[in-house]
Each structure stands twice: as C-alpha cells, then as structure tokens.
Amino acid sequence: MNTGPGLFSDIGKKAKDLFTRDYLTDQKLSVSTISATGVALTSTATKKGGLSTGDVGAVYKYNNILFDVKFDTESKIATTLTFTELVPSTKTIVSFKLPDFKSGKLDVQYFHSHATLTSAVTLTQSPTVDFSASVGTPTFVIGAEAGYEPSSGRLTKYTAGISVNKPDSSASIILGDKGDTVKASYIHHLDELKKTAAVGEITRRFSLNENTFAVGGSYAVDGLTVVKAKLNNHGKLGAVLQHEIIPKSLLTISSELETNALDKTPKFGLAIALKP
C-alpha cells in the first residue's frame, strides 16, 4: 500500500530491531500450522523464572479483513481486526481484550506518497488520543508524534525524529521523552540478504546528565546460521545464536552478561519456533 515515507514508528526501527530482536532471557516454544481453511494457528508456551504461561492464537484473512484472536492461560481473549483499504489508502485496526472492556483501541493509518498520518484512540470513559505524522520519501523522512489526554487537557508525550535511508544503510535521530532524551543510531548492512550488519547507537539523557553508547552487529555464518552480539558502555554484553533447523523453523539461544560484575550469574534464553 505504502510507497511513501512510512510510519513515524519506523524511524530508527531497523537499528532498534538489531539491538533487541531475539535477545531472550526466558524459554519459549512456539508451534505454528495452517488449517485446510487457511487459518494460521499458533501455540506458544513460555517459562520465565518459575512462572509458566502460554497462549493459543488464530489468524484468518478474508478479503481485506484480517482476524487475529489469542487465548492465554489467564483466560483472557485478545482480538485484533485489521481492515485494509476500508477507505482508500488507509488501514484501520480495532483491538480489545476480554473480559477487560477498558482495553479497546481504534487505530487509523493513512498513507500517501509523501506523507503518513496515524491516529489512535483508547475506547474508554477517559480516552487518550495519539497522533503521528511523517513526511518525505522512502529515502528521507521527518516526523513527530504526540499523545493527548482530553480529560486533563495535557500532553502525555511528544517525540520528533528524522531518518535518512539507503538500500544498505539507515541513520536516524529521535528526540523523545518530552525532549529529555536524544537518540542517534546508524545501521549498515553488509550483504544483500541483510543478515550481516553493524549498528551503533548513542543516547543522551539530559535530566540525568548521562550518555549511553552501544555497538552491535549480526553475522551470517552460512545460509542457516546467524550470530548477533551487542555491548554498551555500562558493560552489558549480549549474544545470540540462531539456526534454521528445518525450513522456516528456528532455534534461538541467547545470553546476557554483566562484564563489570562477573560475579553475577549470566542470563540465558532459549526459543524454538516451528513453522510449516
């Protein structure tokens, strides 16, 4: 649908994903399958510490409507309905959880060749409204977002960002936390499949007079195996080994270590995702 600048939330997302995606500290098993009627079914079991949780989800697409329903072990039902092109160049998302009737949310996204607008409203007695806008092209994007609480008449958040994107790299600067934080990031892909990359990030927190530096990267050992690592100036080191055990099915092993406190026990995570 979108050949323009993309959503505001996409600014800095490539670098953020490389720093966060697949870094786990729990154990997770996920099994997916597709029924004869086209329903995608997923069952997930997660163990974190001594607590075990799980959920079962189903996704079905009918014309321009996507149904996503998830049941968890706490007897909660999360439902998301996505309508594509309900109005030309738009995507409408309705989400809610049962029995929590205060969790409803309506999100409308509008895409244009040189601009993207989004508006999200919580469906409660005291709703909050989030707006975001981005203008530019797929190569150069500038945007902002804000949150507003009508009941109190105050802004709950405001953020601005700019991004420069090329086929093999992306750089971004984001001013967030109501102007208290500036984050600059850069990611460079070293292969066509974008499995090998290097990333750097610096964050300045004005209220604390604190700077955080982080570097990381991913490396494709072969067509089936990828390793990742990240390190910040506070000594936190993370590593990931991900292997495609069978087509579309992944084994992920992750660890986290405090290099400035080697007496602390390292954290480990394990995930297995089986897909048809």
Describe what this molecule looks like in 3D.
The chain has 276 residues and is mainly β. It has a single domain, classed as Porin (Beta Barrel), CATH 2.40.160.10. The protein contains one helix and 19 strands. It has a 19-stranded mixed barrel. The longest helix is centred in the N-terminal third of the chain and has 8 residues, at 13-20. The radius of gyration is 21 Å and the shape is globular. It is found in: Membrane. GO terms for molecular function: porin activity; voltage-gated monoatomic anion channel activity. This is Voltage-dependent anion-selective channel protein. Belongs to the eukaryotic mitochondrial porin (TC 1.B.8.1) family.
Keywords:
mainly beta, 19-stranded mixed beta barrel, 19 strands
What radius of gyration results from the CA coordinates?
A: 21 Å
CATH class identity: Mainly Beta
Q: Percent of residues in beta strands?
A: over 45%
**Number of β-strand runs:** 19
- The percentage helix is under 10%
Report low-confidence residues grouped into runs of 5 or more: none
How many angstroms separate the termini? Answer: 27 Å
Domains (count): 1
Overall pLDDT, averaged?
A: 93
Subcellular location: Membrane
Organism: Deinandra increscens subsp. villosa
Pfam families: Porin_3 (PF01459)
GO molecular function, one term: voltage-gated monoatomic anion channel activity
Task: Reconstruct the topology from this structure.
Elements: H1 13-20, E1 27-34, E2 40-48, E3 51-62, E4 65-72, E5 77-84, E6 90-98, E7 105-111, E8 115-122, E9 129-136, E10 140-149, E11 154-166, E12 169-176, E13 181-189, E14 197-205, E15 210-220, E16 225-232, E17 236-246, E18 249-258, E19 267-274
Parallel strand pairs: 1-19
Antiparallel strand pairs: 1-2, 2-3, 3-4, 4-5, 5-6, 6-7, 7-8, 8-9, 9-10, 10-11, 11-12, 12-13, 13-14, 14-15, 15-16, 16-17, 17-18, 18-19
